[in-house]
Design brief:
With 220 residues, the protein is mainly β. It has helices spanning 200-205, 207-214; strands spanning 15-16, 33-35, 37-40, 53-55, 58-60, 73-75, 78-80, 83-88, 93-100, 103-108, 113-120, 123-128, 133-140, 143-145, 153-160, 162-165, 177-178, 182-185. The strands form two sheets. Strands 1, 2, 3, 4, 5, 6, 7, 9, 11, 13, 15 and 17 form a twelve-stranded parallel sheet that branches. The termini are far apart. The model has no long low-confidence stretch (mean pLDDT 93).
């Protein structure tokens, strides 16, 4: 089942974050909850926002370089044209969320939980979702390189019009994984995709790689 499109927060319902730099180190415990805030071009570089809660917030044109968002909780939020290398979402929770036109790299999101999330457009390099739980998540018209889905529990994950370069699978639960809308390049762990959905053309294209993983010799 594909992700339903989350409701995008409206600017009129939000308060503009007043500072150009997100400086979480000086925040009190009360300030770790962000409700209806719009971060317009905000610099989160190297910020520490571990375990922060973001509700109905928008990050627009923000920089997330080396940001620490471990254990953070995001609900009914949108990331628009966000950029960043070294984004840590370890054990974070994302629900009813849209990531639109983002360019991210070295994203550590192992052990995280994604529910009703849509990633639309843009590019994500080195996306680590090892051991993550994903329910009704959709990637649409984007490029994802070095996607790690080993040990992930998938209950609805689709890729429509996407290119996946070097994805890794293994020791996960993939009955809800639909790869039929993606272009797969150099995938690893194909033998572990029990229950996943592939197109007939993909099965033919990947036959040699699958046979090699299973130790099957193909005679001409």
């Amino acid at each position: 089942m594909a992700a339903r499109l989350a409701r995008m927060p409206f600017d009129a319902d939000q308060t503009l974050h007043p500072d150009p730099v997100f400086a979480a180190r000086s925040m009190t415990h009360h300030d770790t909850h962000h409700d209806g805030v719009r971060f317009e071009g905000t610099d989160f570089s190297a910020a520490h926002a571990e375990s922060h809660t973001f509700l109905e917030c928008t990050l627009r044109g923000a920089s997330l370089a080396d940001v620490h968002l471990e254990g953070s909780r995001w609900s009914e939020c949108a990331w628009e044209r966000v950029q960043g290398v070294g984004v840590s979402l370890v054990e974070a929770s994302l629900a009813d969320m849209v990531l639109d036109g983002c360019r991210l790299a070295a994203v550590s999101a192992w052990g995280s939980t994604w529910r009703d999330v849509t990633v639309r457009g843009g590019k994500v390099d080195l996306l680590n979702l090892r051991g993550a739980r994903l329910k009704d998540v959709a990637f649409v018209d984007c490029v994802v390189t070095e996607l790690d889905l080993a040990e992930a529990r998938v209950d609805g994950l689709t890729f429509e019009g996407c290119t996946l370069v070097g994805p890794t699978f293994g020791r996960g639960t993939y009955a809800g994984l639909d790869l039929s809308g993606a272009t797969l390049r150099s995938p690893r762990g194909l033998a572990a995709l029990r229950g996943a959905t592939l197109s007939r053309a993909q099965v033919i294209d990947l036959a040699d790689a699958l046979a090699a993983e299973l130790g099957i010799l193909i005679a001409d």
